[in-house]
Amino acid sequence: MARPKIALIGAGQIGGTLAHLAALKELGDVVLFDIADGTPQGKALDIAESGPSEGFDATLKGTTDYADIAGADVCIVTAGVPRKPGMSRDDLLGINLKVMKSVGEGIKENAPDAFVICITNPLDAMVWALQQYSGLPAEKVVGMAGVLDSARFRHFLSVEFGVSMKDVTAFVLGGHGDTMVPSARYSTVGGIPLPDLVEMGWTTQEKLDAIIQRTRDGGAEIVGLLKTGSAFYAPATSAIEMAEAYLKDQKRVLPCAAYCNGEIGVDGMYVGVPTVIGAGGIEKVIDIKLNKEEQVMFDKSVDAVKGLVEACKAIDSNLA
Ligand code: APR
């Protein structure tokens, strides 16, 4: 059987890291696409030259021609601009919406059967627009945010509790912005929910609240440190986890920006929700029950995403 084909649209910081990870994990052959001639070719060649030492079997190709992504099984989209210190993800909307139009048309034309993972910010609005521009079924177009936000939450929790990250589970829901909802009740250490751990005296509510806020600010913390761009190692790793779930039909339960049809009270838009990812793409959106306090936070986050979607519609009246 031929190897799967993984097309990476955008060969910047995240795109290059995605290519490296996909090759190291032998997920398939990789095509790096970018409009900046030389960048995708240079990165593809550099990573291919790491193959003999690492011993992976995967071909890598860099291109500025959409025809080269033909027949891709997975497309991961990072094309666009990242934020700089002082910018919110929402400040990128105008520029990145135009990029989504050209990327969506490129995918529609060349890789209409792909599972598409969008990373470009502001995430929830960009994945919504990308689905419309590409015309692909909603279950095949998904946004990467929840896996990353949850990984940040899990990392901070593992440090606080002094335990392995493997034994910490976490769920972050809602939009990928300042209003995201890290759920303490659905997050656990060794299966024990966080509120129980507070009651047991293993941590305090104050410390937990600080970790939740640090999770919300996780992207900005990295932007503040890097100064010239935004995070790329953890975002790329998160998207690769989702791509692997699809390619290997793993039925992973992962929080993603998925198209909701009434689940958790959300209808006709993309927002971060728990999903099952397998060979069918988003095979299920898990309709979890939120308590009153969580629902208020979630609804606020959904409203923030609605505002971004409206801003997209105001820019391009073809979006509905
Ligand atoms: N088509 C293809 N590639 C494009 C296009 C386009 N229309 N416009 C820009 N690009 C490319 C740029 O040439 C650049 O190589 O997208 C790449 C983006 O790479 P970086 O600037 O390094 O950004 P990165 O850190 O990878 O983040 C990309 O992901 O997390 C989000 O907010 C982040 O929206 C940003 C995206």
TrEMBL record:
Keywords: NAD, Oxidoreductase, Tricarboxylic acid cycle. One of its GO terms (biological process) is lactate metabolic process. Substrate binds at residues 83, 89, 121, 152. InterPro entries: L-lactate/malate_DH, Lactate/malate_DH_C, Lactate/malate_DH_N, Lactate_DH/Glyco_Ohase_4_C, Malate_DH_type3, NAD(P)-bd_dom_sf. The active site is at residue 176. It is an enzyme of class 1 (oxidoreductase). CDD domains: LDH-like_MDH. Catalyzes the reversible oxidation of malate to oxaloacetate. Belongs to the LDH/MDH superfamily. MDH type 3 family. This is Malate dehydrogenase. It comes from Celeribacter ethanolicus.
